[in-house]
């Protein structure tokens, strides 16, 4: 078995791991990047990119079927499921290829293929096919092992008919029906896309959560809108899931209170992800673990309770987003390399304003502090502004006039704290508002920014004016104001 001594060992070659590798290389060339699974990030292989490709196809079919509003008739729309999924895979492979090119650009001597586990505080045993191939002694270690799909026991009975974002894109053709469990980001995006492509969808939640929305009004409104397209029950009572010769039987209580047993071709598990820590043998370290057996760590430095071990990316189960994983990787890798010369030289890295987007239609965006965080920290000393997009000019022009935006700010200072939105172009509006949060802008300063006419962003101005009035920092909004333009 090979014996390797390095300054920095990085476990995992995903987005966070690659970022950590590049950052550590600024301080030392004595680095090893350990990866046991397939190269290519979760985003490129099974996450954000293939899902957006499926959504693009679905939106194309959906919009072609709904042109009557504009006086345009389309005789028929047909979906070639094999062609849809073939394009998804082809473009997915192209995106993954870019990631592989990046990894191939790393020094070949720094690659180590296999699965790592801790032997002690500084020693990793790396195995391939359950055979030990190397023992790595490292002065600094970065854990960047990512996360995996979580399948609850209820769904396990579906056996070979369980789908997740890990394998749904490998289907040769679109099935006739799928029961989707989990109306979170993955469930909403894939479920709605499959429905628009002609798959019979029923979506089941358990706790009432929906797309990460915290505001109860927006959540109830969103559930109503989604139900106009497909069956969605965010508080479903599902008593049984069973694999049968015909597929999968799901027994549940429908919205009328009747118990129903319905057959589906597949079950899609969108029930969350769990951190890949269970095979690391963390018990062989002094790491302090939380209730989920994940190492406790500093949000700004990535450092764990063991000062020479850092953690980054989805494995920390904090903000499971690509841009956050990239930032965390750079911070953790930089601190691992920098602290080689001085163990106390561990620095806080830039953590950006929180921003989350669900690419459903309408889209969902969350910016800055959540409503729960604001209620806890501000103890009632905040105000809420609101706008409905049902009457908003540009939204009505495009026939996308469904949605609500709520914006939050601190009483007294007028400091903009965050926002939650279910509506058109939320991915773009979310970016604008996250920049305002990061720049610590006040609502008054945001209202001084330019707003063109007619654009969806005028709805943001309406919500901010409502908020400014409730902060007692501005006058009541004027209905049909002349400077806004008609329908703003």
Detailed description of the structure:
The protein is an alpha/beta fold. The chain has three domains: 2-148 and 274-338, FAD/NAD(P)-binding domain (3-Layer(bba) Sandwich), CATH 3.50.50.60; 153-271, FAD/NAD(P)-binding domain; 355-470, Enolase-like, domain 1. It has 13 helices and 22 strands. The chain has helices at 15-25, 42-45, 48-65, 81-104, 153-156, 185-196, 216-226, 322-338, 371-378, 393-398, 426-438, 443-447, 458-470; strands at 2-11, 31-35, 111-113, 115-118, 123-128, 131-143, 147-149, 162-163, 177-181, 200-204, 231-233, 237-244, 247-253, 259-264, 266-269, 273-275, 309-311, 355-358, 363-368, 382-388, 404-410, 416-423. Strands 1, 2, 3, 4, 5, 6 and 17 form a seven-stranded mixed β-sheet that branches. Strands 8-15-9-10-11 form a five-stranded parallel β-sheet, with helices on one face. A five-stranded antiparallel β-sheet has the order 18-19-22-21-20, with helices on both faces. Helix 1 (15-25) runs parallel beside helix 8 (322-338), helix 3 (48-65) packs antiparallel against helix 4 and helix 3 runs parallel beside helix 6 (185-196). The mean pLDDT is 95.
Number of helices: 13
- CATH superfamily caption of the largest domain: FAD/NAD(P)-binding domain
Portion in helices: 25-40%
Largest sheet: 7 strands, mixed
On the 0 to 100 scale, the average pLDDT is 95
Give the beta-strand count.
22
Q: Between the first and last Cα atoms, what is the distance in angstroms?
A: 70 Å
Unreliable stretches: none
How would you classify the helix and strand content by structural class? alpha/beta
Overall 3D shape: globular
